[in-house]
Specification:
Length: 155
C-alpha cells in the first residue's frame, strides 16, 4: 500500500510539475505577445505626411453655392503636427489636420475671437495632387456653415 501511495504521489507531483511548467510557458508567451502588442507605434514617422505638405489653390463652395478662390499652405510643425494656414480664407492661426493613407481629418478645434467663438472640423480624401475636403464652421450662436472645397497642389 505504501508503494502505491508513494507512486501516486510521484504521479501527482509529476502532473503538477507539468501543469506548472505548461502554465509558466503560457504566461511567458502571453507576456511576450502583450509587450510586443503594446509597442508605441505613434512615435513612428507617418510616411503619408509628405504627400499632403505643400501649397494649394482652393476652390471653396459654401452651402448656398457661393464659390471663393484662395490659397492655403499645409506644413509640418516642429512637433510633427500638420497645420493648414489660411484655412477657409478666414483663419489667421493654423488649423491642425492629419492624414492616414489618403484620408484627411481636421479634428474639431475651437477658436476664440474678440467677439465670436467658432468650431472648425472636417474630413476628406487626397487623390494624387487633389484634396477634396468637406468642413463645417460652427459659430457661437449655433449657426453652422457648411463648405466643400477642392484644393489642387501647386507644382
Amino acid at each position: 500500500m505504501k508503494t502505491l501511495t508513494f507512486q501516486l504521489k510521484n504521479v501527482v507531483t509529476s502532473i503538477s510539475g507539468y501543469i506548472l511548467f505548461r502554465n509558466s510557458i503560457t504566461v511567458m508567451m502571453f507576456a511576450i505577445v502583450t509587450l510586443t502588442a503594446c509597442s508605441d507605434d505613434d512615435d513612428a514617422p507617418n510616411p503619408d505626411i509628405a504627400k499632403l505638405v505643400g501649397s494649394y489653390s482652393v476652390v471653396d463652395t459654401d452651402e448656398d453655392g457661393e464659390i471663393e478662390n484662395y490659397s492655403i499652405g499645409i506644413t509640418q510643425s516642429k512637433n510633427g503636427d500638420l497645420e493648414i494656414s489660411n484655412f477657409g480664407d478666414i483663419m489667421y492661426v493654423p488649423v491642425k489636420t492629419s492624414i492616414k493613407g489618403n484620408a484627411v481629418t481636421v479634428p474639431a478645434q475651437t477658436f476664440n475671437g474678440k467677439s465670436m467663438t467658432i468650431v472648425i472640423e472636417g474630413s476628406g480624401t487626397l487623390n494624387g495632387n487633389t484634396l477634396n475636403l468637406d468642413y463645417t464652421i460652427e459659430t457661437g450662436d449655433d449657426y453652422l456653415l457648411e463648405h466643400s472645397c477642392v484644393a489642387t497642389k501647386n507644382p
